[in-house]
Amino acid sequence: MQENEQLVITPLGGLGEIGLNCQLWKTSRGVVMVDCGLMFPSDEHLGVDVVIPHFGAVAGAKQEMLGIVLTHGHEDHIGALPWIVPELRGVDIYGSPLTLALVEHKLREHDIFDLVHLHPVLPNETRTIGDLTFHFFPVCHSIPQGYALGVETPVGRILHTGDFKLDSQPLSGTGTDLSMLGAFAGEEGLRLLMSDSTNIERPGRSLTEREVKASLDSIFARAEGRVVITLFSSHLQRIQEVFDLAEKYGRTVVISGRSLANNIEMAQKLGILHTPQALYNAYAGVPDLPDSEVVLVVTGAQGEPMSALSRMAFGGHRQLSIHPGDTVVMSSRVIPGNARVVTHLIDEMYRQGAEVLYESVLAIHASGHAQRDELKEMLLAVRPEFFVPVHGEYRHLIKHGRLAAECGVAKDKVVILEDGHPLKLTSGGVELLDPIPVDYTLVDGKGVGDVGGSVLRERRILGEEGMVVVSLVMDIETDYILGGPELLSRGFVYDKFEYVFDDAKCLVLDEVEKSRAGLTSSPLQDNIRGALRQFFRRVLDRDPIVVVVISRV
């Protein structure tokens, strides 16, 4: 540990929400970004495509940027790269071969791949960036080639777990080796542990993939019709399980979904996935086989309207549809906020005559995140002096902090950070610095940051109350009405409320007369808008957006 040195860790996302994982680590030698993730919009983000971190702090530090280090390839850890890479031209990005393959595909889609330098890192290798030395420790997660980051810094050793779980007998890979992490911590323990908090509220241990595969095996064994499996396209280990079971039971695999096909091809090239001989992409044609000889692997685990499964259920898929007798396996956890859409999809598939299996009725999904007992094992293995819970909503961070205190971390050394709150670590201790702005940036189509709170409020009003457009044509010299007023309603009232619009037109004429007589000082548009909103609230108890268009000729 070096005197007079310091490390400032600034979380830009991931501390207070699920997603947006992104941190800046700054020393006297420069800045390293750890992960760069997005978050999918919630119901309040009307029309928004994705949510990304506020990159103001990154723009301010781009001259000091030394590189980006990625823990794994999920969207909540790499998804925001297309929006920051143009700002950081020539940036070095470090990660596992699979993670960087996913990054390359994403950046090529945005035609910005030439702006980065990718540095693949194998398990247990190290990379020194500035005065930070990163050890890439393999961990078990729901996507292959995920890493925990053991970092040698001027102020001591730090472990950032990334997303992880403990599985003593993983179906592939080495799993999470606590003894290796303990050896990195040394006899004195870590200076700081930053650990995944997602599943702190779940007691016990997470389900293993072996248990999931056993459940899937029993489904294949008793299914008489087609087996339809939907899962996250990044869950390559489970895709491999499905491929293995298809071969075991003599079923031909048909896949549908662009992201699924891309990830399978990518993983196959990297030697991560071994595909069966009988594999078809529905886009190129579906084999004419009995239902009992087919398994479909499709996207749509979260009920996305344009996903393969939704289009199959609601009749929008050109090649596939749900058949009576299908066994549909939803092998994923429903993301909070998607429950209503997923339930609607399940109901529709039952109407089509399918049997639907999901996590709450059968062990067909294992989380990739450690549960309470596993998180406790991590804390005891590395014995940190300071502890910062990460990757979770605020209650997750609080509860994980309490667990750390139970495991021997002094209560005053458990630090609950939120997005935008920099933490300075020195040889003498830690200090919270003044917060920085980290409001989410909303991406809507090609617009980045041009949709904010006021636009979302207007969209909400349009969705709930509708809109009324008032048009007038007036003489430019005398202000006499030459045409109108005409009122156009969208999403406000049915035609049978025409009498309401007749009264509204009279109000418009009254406001015009007041303006011509000099009885008002405000602009005519504002007076008409205010009078109509007050009228609609009084008569219909509604408050639509009122747009007034006055043309003077």
Question: How would you briefly describe this protein structure?
Answer:
Helix content is 30%, strand content 26%. It has 553 residues and is of the alpha/beta class.
Topology:
Elements: E1 6-13, E2 15-16, E3 22-27, E4 30-36, E5 50-52, H1 56-60, E6 65-69, H2 75-78, H3 81-84, E7 91-95, H4 97-109, E8 116-120, E9 126-129, E10 132-139, E11 146-153, E12 156-160, H5 178-185, E13 192-196, H6 209-222, E14 227-230, H7 236-248, E15 252-256, H8 258-269, E16 279-281, E17 294-298, H9 308-314, E18 327-330, H10 339-351, E19 355-358, H11 372-382, E20 386-390, E21 392-393, H12 394-406, E22 423-426, E23 429-432, E24 441-444, E25 447-448, H13 453-464, E26 467-474, E27 481-490, H14 498-516, H15 524-540, E28 545-552
Parallel strand pairs: 2-21, 4-6, 6-7, 7-8, 12-13, 13-20, 14-17, 14-18, 15-16, 15-17, 18-19, 26-28
Antiparallel strand pairs: 1-3, 1-22, 3-4, 5-24, 9-10, 10-11, 11-12, 22-23, 24-25, 26-27
Inertia-based shape: globular
Terminal residue distance:
78 Å
Alpha-beta content class: alpha/beta
* Average pLDDT score: 89
Approximate strand percentage:
25-35%
How many strands in all? 28
Uncertain stretches of 5 or more adjacent residues: none
Helicity range = 25-40%
Largest sheet: 8 strands, mixed
Strand order of the largest sheet: 8-7-6-4-3-1-22-23
Q: What is the count of helical runs?
A: 15
Radius of gyration: 28 Å
